[in-house]
Specification:
This protein is an alpha+beta fold. The protein has 2 domains: 28-147, Putative Large Serine Recombinase, Chain B, Domain 2 (Hect, E3 ligase catalytic domain fold, Alpha-Beta Complex), CATH 3.90.1750; 165-312, no CATH class. Helices cover 43% and strands 17% of the residues. It has helices at 2-34, 65-76, 82-92, 104-111, 137-147, 211-220, 229-249, 253-259, 273-286, 289-296, and strands at 46-51, 54-60, 119-122, 125-128, 165-167, 174-182, 188-196, 209-210, 303-306, 309-312. The strands form 4 sheets. Strands 5-9-10 form a 3-stranded mixed beta sheet, covered by helices on one side. Strands 6-7-8 form a 3-stranded antiparallel beta sheet. A two-stranded antiparallel ribbon has the order 1-2. A hairpin with a 2-residue loop joins strand 1 and strand 2. The longest helix is centred in the N-terminal third of the chain and has 33 residues, at 2-34. The radius of gyration is 32 Å and the shape is elongated.
Length: 314
């Protein structure tokens, strides 16, 4: 029993020593941060200067710093993307201290690191560094603004014409994605492009086509498209019913009675191709994404998309 008791005391003392050692290490690292030196390996563009097997201070890497500085200028002043920077770095043969090319993830990490304008974060706290900055805070903010991408709303994107046609090169179904164009003063505009899903051939070179151009080509084939006229007529009937519900519940019935009598609800909607075709044209040109998704169920014709040209599948 005495031996077990002594062993328990020794284990407790060892744990206490380890805990104290951890506290002392953290205190030392915090003191170094407060002195202006980040207590770990310097980012690319800087070099650690060692003294007594410890990092003494940080100096600029005269070989790599000019390239890192140019990275920020290319993004902030010229509007280049991270991928463009990666291609440029590989082209000029830029390598890290270990002799390897800078990975794309490291390119973005470098461009988002405040260390280069004189600050660094450690342990959730931001410190002012004593190292020499490579860029200004103004340039850094320009780069962050250029790299900003609006958050994506997963599972909320609506692409009405996905599944309408197949790729003319490899036979894969055409899918879609959103692209954003940046304008001055921080504004963004969304565009939708359709392209090969590349599941059959990952290297398929079928070009992208905008949703607007795809709609225009679909409209040009309107007389050749096989339609389920019953589906279209039912949808048109729902639209008229919604209009009359709005007229009766929201708008002033007295005002509409004298001005919109021509829109009185018809007793019977004609089940003919001309009506169906006109309604299809209306939805394609002015309908919402939800309306277009519904209308696609009435199109029985399959299409092929090749070199941005939509043709009917034989």
């Amino acid at each position: 029993m005495v031996e077990k008791f002594l062993l328990m005391i020794l284990c407790s003392q060892a744990k206490l020593e380890n805990d104290n050692r951890g506290i002392n290490v953290k205190r030392g690292m915090r003191a170094k941060c407060e002195a202006g030196w980040r207590p770990n390996i310097a980012p690319i563009g800087y070099l650690n200067v060692m003294s007594y097997n410890r990092i003494s201070y940080v100096e600029i890497d005269k070989v790599r710093a000019p390239t890192v500085k140019q990275m920020f200028h290319r993004v902030g002043e010229k509007g280049q993307s991270g991928r463009t920077i990666k291609i440029w770095l590989d082209k000029i043969g830029f390598v890290t201290r270990s002799g390897k090319p800078l990975a794309l993830s490291k390119v973005y990490k470098t461009l988002k690191n405040p260390y280069y304008y004189g600050e660094f974060e450690f342990g959730g706290v931001t410190y002012k560094g004593k190292h020499e900055p490579l860029i200004t805070k103004t340039l850094f903010d320009k780069v962050q603004k250029q790299l900003y991408v609006p958050e994506k709303e997963w599972h909320k994107k609506l692409f009405p014409f996905r599944g309408l046609c197949k790729c003319g090169s490899c036979g894969e179904w055409i899918t879609a994605e959103e692209k954003y164009k940046r304008y001055k003063y921080g504004r963004f505009k969304k565009y939708v492009y359709y392209h090969c899903g590349r599941h059959i051939d990952y290297d398929c070179e079928e070009p992208y086509i905008s949703e607007e151009e795809l709609i225009n080509q679909l409209v040009s084939h309107i007389d050749e498209i096989k339609l389920d006229e019953k589906v279209l007529t039912n949808q048109l009937k729902d639209e008229i019913e919604r209009f009359h519900s709005l007229r009766g519940e929201v708008l002033h019935q007295e005002f509409l009675a004298g001005n919109l009598n021509q829109f009185d609800y018809p007793q019977k909607i004609p089940l003919d191709r001309d009506t169906a075709k006109e309604y299809l044209l209306h939805v394609l040109k002015a309908g919402s994404a939800e309306d277009r998704i519904q209308i696609m169920s009435a199109i029985k014709t399959k299409f092929i998309l090749h070199n941005k040209e939509l043709t009917i599948k034989n």
